[in-house]
Amino acid sequence: MVLCKICEKEESKYKCPKCRAPYCSLVCFKQHKEIPCEVSEPTNEVPTRKEITPIGAPDEEDPSRLTPNDLEKLMYSKEIHEFLEYPQLREIIKKLDCSNTPEKDLDLIRSQDSVFDDFTKKLVEITFKEKLEVSNKK
């Protein structure tokens, strides 16, 4: 939980588009805008991901589990990189990542946004195409 930088009472829901300062409401945003903020300079540092500790042993039978090979395919996919050039798509992904009901929200967004729907189909095609072919042969 990140607290609002302005009131320091409520959980922040937003960030200033200029300086990225966290704030919780329109009232706090207006108060923040009274004092000019500085644009945060982008760094050349590669963001590091938080290490995720599995809760239990991986279920080898779970076909939805992405393998390191699957992740590598996504990392080097030109098509995925092209999709991720759209700022709107990146915002949708952030919202889904923070959602309390990601499956429900995923279905809703896919029905409303054709670009996001195409993106999810491409993800599935890249990561599960071979797995589906193998399971269909059995």
Automatic annotation (TrEMBL):
Q: Which terms under GO biological process does the entry name?
A: box C/D snoRNP assembly; maturation of LSU-rRNA from tricistronic rRNA transcript (SSU-rRNA, 5.8S rRNA, LSU-rRNA); snoRNA localization
GO terms under cellular component? nucleus; pre-snoRNP complex
Annotated spans, Disordered: 40-66
InterPro entries, A to Z: BCD1, Znf_HIT
SUPFAM superfamilies on file? HIT/MYND zinc finger-like
Every copy of the HIT-type domain together lies at 4-37
Q: Does the keyword Transport apply?
A: no
MF (Gene Ontology): zinc ion binding
Keywords carried by this UniProt record? Metal-binding, Zinc, Zinc-finger
Protein name, entry field: HIT-type domain-containing protein
Q: Which organism is it from?
A: Thamnidium elegans
